[in-house]
Amino acid sequence: MMQERTINALVLAGFVLLPIWALATDEPFTITLATRTVLLALAAVGLNIALGIGGLVSLGHAVFFGLGGYAMGILAFHAQSFTPLELGPLTIAGTKSMPIIWLCAIVVSALAAFVIGLLSLRTTGVYFIMITLAFGQMFFFFSISWSAYGGEDGLSIWVRNSFPGLNTLIPIQFFGLCFAALCLALFIHWRLRASPFGLTLNAARQNPARVEAVGLSPIRLKLLAFVISGAITGLAGALFADLNRFVSPTMFSWQLSGELIVLIVIGGVGRLMGPVIGAAVFVALEHLLGGLTDFWHIWLGVILLVIVLFSRGGIIGALTGKAGPHV
Amino acid sequence: MSEPVLETRNLSKSFGALKATDDVSIDLIAGEIHAIIGPNGAGKSTLIAQICGGLTPQSGSVLLNGRDISNLGTSERAQAGLGRTFQISALAMEDTVLENVTLGAIGQSARPWRFWTPALKDYELKQRAMAALDQVGLSAAVDQITSTLSHGQRRQLEVAMALTLEPRAFVMDEPMAGLGAEGSKAMTGFLDGLRDQAPILLVEHDMDAVFALADRISVLVYGRIIATGTIDEIRASGEVKKAYLGETV
Amino acid sequence: MSTILIIEQILNGLQFGIMLFLMAAGLTLIFGVMGLINLAHGSLYMMAALAAAALAGAIVEIVVIRRLYAAAHLDQVLATFALILVFSEGTRWVFGSFPLFLDVPSYLSGPITLPGGIQYPLYRLALIVIGLLVAFGLWWLTVRTRLGVQIRAGENDREMIAALGVDISKLYTIVFALGAALAGLAGALVGAIQSVQVGMGEPVLILAFVVIVIGGIGSIKGAFIGAILVGLTDTLGGIFLPQFFKLFMEAGAATQTGSALASMAVYVLMGLVLIWRPTGLFGARS
After folding, report:
1. HEC assignment per residue over A190-216
2. How much is the pTM?
């Protein structure tokens, strides 16, 4: 049995060493793969705050991923085509500066999470799952219909956006940026979980009646968690779109929402590094098995089934011998 | 005579044709334990829910220290000073004993919006949490996971949670539930001393405990209070005998 | 916009709704009685259109689903999501990606003239009739037969009816098989007007969930009303929204915007229902 702390350290070390090794052996594709993993992990870390601590099974978190992606896409599009963005009375010039784009992605996602959360938290259980799914589908179909930004075909951004002091076109530098974002998100999760807010949110997941009886509102706690969660996933979306220099409606798809949940479950729900391990497993399977067979989803399904039936704490649960939070 | 700490006035609630609560007016004065007893199906849970905030009555009001709390939600009533314990312990089972009472302490402070300092390392929270645990005698179990506690210990923790709130009044729903002879004696002794801290509205089935603790008893039958009085008065009441035993003997 | 076209589209909407109802009824029964969210129901729909639905359902229930009854919602969602993946890809592996085209039987092909002089495909009308018959059959089953009583009692208190001597395992298997059969029936019937292929399950699966959520989980009446609402919204929205947009947009963009917003319409409907009634129209209030 391993300590969770040891596992966490090993995983982080792996994420630092792998790209360095890839750099040394001149395998830029591996760095790109690692970046992809880091960004999926970032999106899932966001979800894990709402899901793992708050118990909110959101099957619509792709909304925030997509909003972040389109925030990037729209701003960069207007910058690269030298046309200003007209929002009613406001005219905004586009931008290709990452910090500004990230700020927009975070603000837009947080606002969306606030509204969606406010409406959805009136429901619980399956109904909550379905209403979050509904919001995801609304954005999905809306983005398909919005031909100004590519509609179904999506939007290509010719050159990666810029970050002061770095050459973001170099894979290892972009990786570094993404990894820093992931570490920041993990840090937020860590401090949040130990804080009074984290303790009350975690209790609200287990027994809302108890939280009410001590004088606190479970819904307000969950709403804040949902907003923080959405903001982080939104940032991941903006970075992901930048990685691929492409944003499309699939960033809003329910399959993606489902995959984020699956990632977290494979790694360990509610555990700090659950999403990170899960993302690594997912991308590894996709890359290694996807090359062998077109049907690698079968194996993902089998692994998921085994975990749900036999080891609900995911990989971390199996390694530490301790079941994690029960959602 | 000072005003009651907790009071219901003409509380009524029907579910369709069924009158679950029928014009119930009871009060709780400082320093007393007022027991609510009644046969099964009398409507005790419905009554508690209306006092504590889970159910909205069709008419009537609930007052705490003279203040009308009828329109407040459950968490707001707890903030106002209503300390409730549940019949089936409502605890965060995955968390430790300390985490549970710390939750209570955070609730009392009404400031859960802190994200930086670890909750378990906060001095004030710890003081308050440990004080409650010491009072119920659970300090040794601080780091135990709640799901591993014995039933009796969970009932103690349930009470400790109410203590962290420093309530103006306690509403306790069958605190003796599931406790054996030893546990009941211990809990009875504990509640006896608790009435000086805040009065207790005690809903109970365990008659030994009721007769040992109650200053006043109210009898609830089919949603109506059919009698209120001291233990002797209730024992002598024909109405009560009829309700419990059928025809008057 | 002629009246004939409107009526025709309403009928199409009803037909779609009734097919959805078959899917949804099975799902709501399963969830209502067994408390189980079966995301894999969609894959069953697809497999069923290929063959042996009830048999597949019974086997899955016995082998996998039984372990999940006591599990938390999230686990059930995940396990069945896993099953979709396995079934979906497994079927694709076994059968290949090419769609199957089934034929409408000759005695059901061609148009029929309805009162008022409207021509409507006989097959689609037959589907509406079959669907209504099944709805009636389900109503009769749940209200008039012993099995139905057991199912309804099971929705309220599983442990109690087990204590009363009802064989819960067998009941669950029957319910699951019934649900699967209904899905299969829907798939087989629709197979003639839509090609049968991998992935046909997923969009309908989601819509079936939308239906039971709008209707309230566990309520067959809710599933029926929900299905009709969804069927009509989806079909009528798909026809009229693009028309609406053509009023001030050019044809290509109007069609794209209109049909995407039509797809959105169903979710907006569900969102509104849940905001108004957090447990669906006829679902159990907590």
Report:
1. HHHHHCHHHHHHHHHHHCHHHHHHCCC
2. 0.86
